[in-house]
Amino acid sequence: PALGLFLFTIARDPLRIIILIAGAFFWLVSLLLSSLIWFIAVKASDPKDEPLQKGLLIFGVMFSVLLQEAFRFLYYKLLRKAIEGLVALSEDGCSPISIQQMAYVAGVGFGLMSGAFSMINLLADALGPGTVGIHGDSQLYFLTSAFMTMVLIFLHTFWGILFFHGCEHRRWWEITAVVVMHLAVSGSTFCNPLYVGSLVPSYLLMAAAAAWAYLLSGGSAQNLRRFLLCKS
Amino acid sequence: MITFTNNSDSEEEPCNERTSLMSAESPPVPSYQDGLPASEAGEAQAHRKRRTGSSRSPNNIADGDMSDSGVPVRESALENEEEELTLKYGAKHVIMLFVPVTLCMIVVVATIKSVRFYTEKNGQLIYTPFSEDTPSVGQRLLNSVLNTIIMISVIVVMTVFLVLLYKYRCYKFIHGWLILSSLMLLFLFTYIYLGEVLKTYNVAMDYPTLFLVIWNFGAVGMICIHWKGPLQLQQAYLIMISALMALVFIKYLPEWSAWVILGAISIYDLMAVLCPKGPLRMLVETAQERNEPIFPALIYSSAMMWTVGMAKPDAAARGPSRQMWDAAEDGRENHRSPSHTDSQMSETRSPVPTRPITSFEELEEEERGVKLGLGDFIFYSVLVGKAAATASGDWNTTLACFVAILIGLCLTLLLLAVFKKALPALPISITFGLVFYFSTDNLVRPFMDTLASHQLYI
Question: Which residue ranges run through the membrane (chain A) (predicted)?
Fold first, then answer.
C-alpha cells in the first residue's frame, strides 16, 4: 500500500520526489545516530548479561524514537526555509507546493524508509528455504511483521502531517501527542510474541491518527460521505 | 561532471545577473537552466550524461537568449518567471537524472545478487597488480593503497593524453579510440554478461541465436551512441554500458582497493574539475573556446536533442529555442568535452572499454538540461554494487547507500544551480555513500538485526 501511495501521489511531481528522498535520508541519519549510541552502550556493557542487554535494547529503541522525532523537527525547519525560498522565487507569490503536501510527503518518506529497513531483510530471507517458527517462535512471524510494517508506514505518514501542523500553528500539545504515540507504538512491540498486545493498539492508534490528520487537512465527515458516494 | 546544456560562451553577460538571482533558492531544487516554457515539451528525455561533470550554467546563456527572443518587455518579470521555471524545471532535471542513475544501480544490484560470476574472485586487472590476499592487515592496506595509486595515475595519464589530443585537434584519433572502445564494450562485455546470466538461470541458447542477438544489440548500440538514434534508446544504451562497466569493476577490483579507489577518484575529480590547471577543466574550456561538441558518448544529458532536419517538428520547443539553438549547440559541445575526457579515463580504466560517444555533432538543437558524465554513473553503481556484494547486512546497506548517493546528487545539482559552472559530480555523493556504507554495515546492522530478532519496531 505504501508503494501505491507513492506511485499515485508522489511520482508525478519531481519536487515531491526530492522531498521524499530527503525525508528518507533524514530518517536514515537518525537511525544511524541511534544505532551508534546503542552500539557504544552495548560495547561498554557486559554481553553475557541478558536482562541488561534487553534493557539496553529497550533504551536503544526509545532513544531512537526520540531521535526520529527530533529529525522530523529538523526536517520541518529545513522545509520551512525551502518554502520561503520557493515563494520568494515564484512569480505569483505562492509556492508550488504547500506545507501540508510537504508534510505528507515527508511522512511518507520517513515511513517508507523505516518500513524498508524493517522488512527488506525479512523479505530476502523469505525467498529462501526454511520453515517459520521452527524453534518455537510464532509461526505468524512474517505475517505480523508485514502488518506491523504497514501500520508503521501509515503511522509515519500521519505523524508527519500532524507534526508539521503542530509546528505550523505552534501547538505544542500536538507535537507531544505525536511523540507519545510513537513511543507507545514502539513500546507496544515489546510484548511482541503476544501479538494482540502490539498489533491491535497500533491499528487503533493508526485509525485515530488517520482521523485526526484527515480533520486537520480540512476534511470532514461531509467530504468523506461525498467522496464515498461519488457525488460531485 | 555535471554540466548544463545550452551554454554558449558568447552569452555570458545575461547570465551574471541571473546567477546572482539564482542564489536564493530552495535547497533541493537546482536551478534549471532552461527557463523556457518550451523546454517543458522537450524535457522528457534525458540525454547523455556527462561524467564527472563540470556543470556549466547554460541557463544563463539560454535565459539570455530567451530574453532576447522572447517578449522584450517586462525584463524583470521574465527573469522572475524564468527563475521560477528554473526552479521547477530544476526539480524536473533532478528527477531526470535520478531515474537513469536509479536504473543503472538497479541493474547492477540485480545482477550482483543473482549472477554469481560477478562476485567470484577470478583475478585482477593489470591496473591493480597487488593482491589483497595477504595475511596481515597492514600489508593489505598497503597493497590497496598502492593499487589505488597505480590506478589513479593511469587515469590521470589517460586524461592528460586525451586533453592533449583534443588540444592538438587529433579528432580522428580520438574518434577511432572511442569507437574501438565502444565496440569492445558493446560486444565483448555483453557477450560475457549474457553468458553468465544464461548460466545462472540455466537457460540454453545455441551459438547462432546468441550471435544474432549480440550482433543486433551491438550494432544498434553503436549506431545509437555514435550517430543518431531515438533519445530513449540512446539513454538506455548508455545506462547499460555504464552498468556493464560497473560490473566489470566490481568483479575485478579487490575489496579494499575498491573503496580506496572510490575515495581517491572523488578527490581526483574534485581537483581535476575545479583547479585551473585540471585536465577536465581545460577540456571544458577548450571545447568552449572552439564551440565544439564534446564527444557525446561520454556524457548523459537530460536535455532533448534532435537534429534540425528531423521529422520531429517539436515546434513549441523549437520556436523559442531557435534563438538559443546556436548557444545550445555551443553549450552542448562544451559539455561534451569533459565527458569525453571522462570516457577516456574510463577507457583507460579497463583495458578496452571506450565510452562510445553519442555523436550528435551535427546540427542539433538542445534543450536545456543537465548533463552528467558516464563515469559518474559507473562509480555510483560500483559503490552500490559493492555494497550489495560485500555487505553482510545486505539490503539495508544497499538501500542506505542508494539514498545517500541520490541525496549527494541532489546537493551537487543544487550547488550547480548556485555556482553555475562545471562541477564534479562524484565527491559529495561518493562521500555520503562511503560514510553510509561503513556506518550502516558496522553500526546499524547489529542494531537492526537485534531489533528484528525480537520483532521490535522503532
Answer: 17-41, 56-75, 102-120, 140-163, 175-196, 202-221
